Design the sequence.
């Protein structure tokens, strides 16, 4: 939503770190910009409510290579995101929860990683969410090993020789490591 102040300390008063954006390297920002994603550290889980005018669509500017993007007020299926120019997205969209996860939906209030082949834009619209089918998983049919840690966090390793035709290994390249 639109806020009366986008100052990091107003938006996240309990944060214990700066807000870091990624621009080829991590850069901290005192003010937050709509459409960008940020790393912000807290002491633990937090719940925060915001009020303001809903953002139903946004066009996000991208630099060539990795970008952290934000969201709009409603969920957006990644399959419905428009690329300008077409075909610039090289990877899956990745969220973060104690490790990178492939996202099929961009959720409000969260940040996501995506790698693009050149500078461009992504257009997000909440109207595109309704009625769209989930993407076909190009890893379908491969063998897999699921690894589960003591905290219940899992990761899956895929292997085999018959991936679908849409499979490209570059789509599974992971984003840069978090700021220290």
Sequence:
């Amino acid at each position: 939503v639109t806020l009366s102040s986008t100052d990091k300390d107003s938006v996240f008063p309990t944060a214990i770190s700066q807000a870091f954006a990624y621009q080829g390297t991590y850069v901290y920002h005192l003010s937050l910009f709509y459409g960008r994603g940020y790393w912000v550290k807290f002491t633990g889980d937090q719940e925060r409510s915001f009020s303001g005018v809903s953002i139903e669509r946004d066009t996000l500017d991208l630099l060539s290579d990795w970008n952290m993007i934000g969201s709009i007020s409603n969920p957006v299926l990644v399959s419905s995101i428009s690329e300008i120019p077409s075909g610039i997205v090289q990877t899956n969209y990745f969220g973060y929860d104690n490790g990178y996860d492939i996202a099929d939906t961009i959720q409000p209030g969260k940040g996501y990683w995506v790698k693009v082949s050149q500078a461009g834009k992504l257009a997000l619209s909440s109207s595109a969410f309704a009625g769209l089918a989930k993407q076909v998983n190009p890893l379908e049919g491969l063998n897999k090993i699921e690894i589960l840690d003591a905290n219940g966090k899992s990761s899956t390793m895929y292997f085999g020789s018959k991936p679908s035709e849409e499979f490209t290994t570059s789509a599974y390249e992971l984003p840069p490591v978090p700021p220290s």
Summary: The chain has a mean pLDDT of 86. The helical segments are 8-11.
